[in-house]
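Predict the holo structure. Ligand: fe (ii) ion.
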Amino acid sequence: MMTLATLSDLGSALSDIVDLQRYPIDRLDSADGQHMLADARRGLDSVGCCCLPNFVKPEALALMKAEIEAGYEQIFWSENSHNPYFSKDQPELAADHPRRHFERRTSGFFNADLIAASSPMTTLYDSELMRRFVGESLRDTHIYCWADPLGRNPYGVMKPGDYFPWHFDGNAYTVSILVQEADAGGVFEYAPDLRAPDNEHYPAVAEVLAGSRERVQQLALKEGDLQIFKGRYSMHRVTAVSGSRNRYIALPTYTRDPDTVNNVERSRQIYGRATAVHHERAALARIDRLSD
Ligand SMILES: O=C(O)CCC(=O)C(=O)O
Ligand SMILES: [Fe+2]
């Protein structure tokens, strides 16, 4: 049985973490690699996300779970209410404007700056093969690992009863890997491409917030499954967790520019604090025209 300590001795190669037989991200140009990419692209094109079952090996999942549980006391728990943009209320807007739609989030984050160098999460996120695979799947090959020191590759943690409301992410693309499944609930729901880099599409956002299911997709992830989704453009949420088990998810993130980070307000709300980097880069121009 590998432990966090022995993992660093062994050196955690990507092949210890990813099922490279089934998912040849190290051979993207091969026939199998092209086939895998075509599947991923089909999912992203048709329903705005792709799911790769059993992408991460059980031993690596066990190490991720051990890492979360060993650092459990350091998780930042939020019980705040937020709107889909993690921005402050704007009383001058109509009461039914999406920016005035606040829901209570009860969930925790094991922030990226706590992830061990020996963690499979680090190996996966540092992997150039992984970045290339994600970019090729999205047909956006100029993507970067996120510069945000807290949000780049955190674990999300939800206890029974916790709920993560509708929101857009501060980064363009997120990969999620379910590390521990809830007994029930904890289902990922998303509305693909609800907004665009140059348009907030508030009326469509308002419809989903008002309960319309027309554009909403559900994804029932199993432990070890990997999904790729466009979190900055597809509004998403996680339904309430029930039963007795926590839900753990690994969240490696990617962006379309190498420098921007979460704004200070969002970083405080999600990760509990803003660092010097968040303050230094607050005025940095974003490459999209979105408000958050
Ligand atoms: O837990 C999930 O599946 C998604 C989490 C999420 O949307 C986020 O951390 O921004
Ligand atoms: Fe998100």
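The first helix runs from residue 4 to 10. The chain has a mean pLDDT of 93.
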